[in-house]
Design brief:
Chain lengths: 313, 367, 262
Amino acid sequence: MEITGQYLMNLVLNGLLIGSIYALMALGLTLIFSVLGIVSFAHGEHYMIGGYVVYFLLETFTNLHPLLAILAAGLVTFLIGVLFERLFLQPMARGEIERPGEYAILVTFGLAFFLQYLVQGIVGPHSKRADRFFDLPSVDLGWLTSTAGTLKVGGIPFSASRLAAAAIAVILLLAMIYFIKRTWVGKGLQAVSQDRNAAAVVGINPLNMNTLAFGLGTMLAGMSGATLVDVFAWVPWIGVPASSKAFVIIVLGGMGSMPGALLGGLIIGVVESLGSGLLPDPGKALAYKDAFGLLIFALVLLVKPTGLFGRKL
Amino acid sequence: MKRVPLQWILAAGLFILALAAPVLLKDQQYWLFIATQAYFWAMLASSWALLAGYAGQFSFGHIAFMAIASYASGILGRDLGWSPVSGVVAGTLVAGVVGLVIGYLCLRLRRTYLALFTIAFAEIFRLVVNAEIDLTGGPLGLYMDYLLDTTSYIPYYYLMLGLLLASLAFMYWLASSRFGLFFRSIREDEVAAAAMGVHIVRYKILAFVVTSMIAGLAGAVDHHFIGFIAPSELIIGRMSLVIAMAVIGGIESLIGAALGAIFIHFSLEWLQQIPVPASMMPKLIAMQPMLEKIGLGVGERGIMTYAWRMVAFGLLLMLTLRFWRNGLIHPIIDRLFRQRVRKETVAKRVQAAEVASPTTFGGTEGR
Amino acid sequence: MIELDVRDVYKSFGGIQALNGVTFSIRGNELIGLIGPNGAGKTTLTNVLDGVYKPTSGEVWLNGERVDGLPPYQIARRGIGRTFQVTRAFRRMTVLENLLVPAMALHPTARKRDFHERAMEVLEFLTIEHLANEYARSLSGGQQKLLELGRLLMLDPDIIILDEPFAGVHPKLMETIYEYIIEVNKQGKAFIIISHDMDSIFTLSRRLLVLNYGEIIADGEPAKVKEDPAVIEAYLGEEEEEGPVVIPAGRLAEGMEEAING
């Protein structure tokens, strides 16, 4: 294939689209890390569950508006997060767990294991995929054309599903940022992430903030998945590459850094897109798609574990 | 002569049972196969327990080492005509070398970063295996020569059992020697260990090399038994299983982890189909559509559990971590074997101290 | 004879200059008190001597060998041992095992049982031999301090750095620690003791090093040092208008206490 400027633009822009959803997921993980101080190894599984919730809601209630389904997915994953946090992570925060660092890694890994097979048990191993959420109106302005499923700007095609996903992701990102920076609760989260004891002294309950942060984090993962279930084929282990990407992003962007997560998400999206688009062998390129991010990840970990922006663990 | 304590009788009994199993099972090749596989998992779980539970290196790349050795051996056999035995040796060495590299790269990584890095390593390896079809056979897998010239499972059974016992003996020796002392000090407090002169670099890398070689050995031998390997064995769910086995068995106990693996592996087999009395079968068949909706099925003798077995163990893993950090099996072993030894030793020492210098006893610190 | 030479050591972290040209030497079994206000750089200096930090510039020479930049385990083997402000016992190992670690680390071919006796002797010296088979985590804070001292004896270094050995320690235990320091010092080891406990420091030390803002502002006999105006200023923060303030030994001036405890 020819590598034209247009082709490159295609890769970059599509990378940005998918990157915005990665950023949303990574933001969730960053929130969890900043407030609880742990990395949830089950983050991708919430992404996976979010997708399945939307799929099944839309299958069962055919007139349900996709946005409502996505919100429902957010609610479900929020609740799962809260439940898990209260049962398994609170004891850590209360000092009841020995060697909490090891515990956090193992128990979230256990959660991932549990959720993967739980969902597989419920839905079976065959892949599912929702129908496209929103059809675009047919438009032809010469430089801009659109059919139900594709928008072409200057000859560069964008899938409607990805556009919708990205749009929703951006809205959610903005909402989250607003929430954290402007609302009282959000500021409470910020306070706890900076200094737990100081926050406690001024009346913010760190334990509740932990629960909230974890729930919000899993919710963001869930909604990321929810937006993409009409883009990718959904299987119970689709959370694994998603987790990997989230890890890559937070390490790249700097653990605990929100802007880092956002920027990192976009970068990974673009890198993946360029990587798989530019590799000469298309078959291998697809297989290696997930590997690019991982390689960068491994390198960043070795060279500068605190990432581009980051805070030390 | 003293009466032999109960726990040693139990242990001996278990050992004899293991040795005699093929005779007892006679024609049931199936269960011999399961047992052989159980020993394979036991090698993985116990070596991971040494790496994580003793040396504190919570690496999620263990399965990758297992597969690296297997693929190396398989490829050497296919492309260079190496015999399976040479392949196993070579594969184990390759796993050791990769373990050395990974161990070196992980030196400066603290716990969470080490976990993330090793996950990345395992995933990258899986993706490479999937992609490089010419080399590895890709998703369809790689066929491997059989290690032994026999159609019976019995020689393989003894081989795996022998390897398991040998590796347990070796790791046990390591754990009770200076290596074990250093590993544990590194897990407890790396900074303090360094301040006390423990060569952190050497022992961290050693932990990786030893355990990756054991995992590799197990993998290469097992796959020359089965005759086939595929990248589906590299999914993270497999690593989770090893972790579940080690944690449930007892992450700080080599024998505990091995027994945990055997227990879980057999349980997974038994739980594949939950038997139902013959009289209930017609009802069960009638319920089939309903059962299939929730991911269950109906087999010849009862309910097919499919993925739900794993769900049960995933839950058990989380609960064990939360409530029984030392595992489920290890505390039992500990109670049977250790309690007496410790009491004896302390009593003896206190006595000896009193005899040697009665004035120094009775320190300033009460408890 | 023990020889330690610290030459012009600087250590900075990002924008912060923690050590600013520290230079001093130790010859033989000196007993040195290292004091200074909070944040003066005492623990940083310890970390540099111990190998936890590599100096930004400057050199550290131990017994004729240059050791700055070596990893901690190499420096431990070459003869510098230390304790930590917050005790770092190997919690899930027994007291005996804790002591065996440095012994084994220093003697590559030895077996554990070769050092059992020595370890028990050390524990007896520290009056905690009855705790030999207890897990370190079940020891009280004071006992853990003794455990750390025991580990040091097994490490047998030439120079022992004690970081706040008296913090939170009750009087009876203090005695034990005093005895330990005096006895081990007599046996030929050098001590650097970091402490805010002025009583103990003035009682024990034969030489005082005062650190402030990463620089050594005084180095000498305790009696002289405590009247050094630079030292007084460092602790009190401001120059007194009337002549030098006399700090009575055995009683902290109120201002100094406040300045130290922040």
